[in-house]
Amino acid sequence: MTWLKKNTHISILMGVCLLFAGYLYITDPGHVSYAEIQIEHGDSLWSLAEQYRGKMSTEDWIKLVKTENELADIKIVAGKSLVIPVVSNHADPINTIEIARNEQ
């Protein structure tokens, strides 16, 4: 306890680092990959966001779609294609371990 009192600047720095790490963990959108989809009649950026956004906020997802597709506004046309971010909440297959066993 006396060490903390003598080194308050280090204690504060450690606390800030822990808070920042927590913030990054909470706001992590997960694994993002891109897919090309065909826009169907009745689709909107909001309906597509609800389907594909994962943990990402709707506003961030729409902003990313507009940037990727160079859209000036939010209007999309049925029959055209969009490149969209698909956020996966599942573990990346590369990071998972599968154990092979010989079943007889």
From TrEMBL:
Pfam family, any one: LysM
Statement: the UniProt record of this protein carries the keyword Cell inner membrane: no
Coiled-coil residue windows: none
Residues annotated as transmembrane: 7-26
Domain of life: Bacteria
LysM domain boundaries: 35-84
Keywords from the UniProt entry: Membrane, Transmembrane, Transmembrane helix
Protein name: LysM domain-containing protein
Source organism (scientific name): Lysinibacillus irui
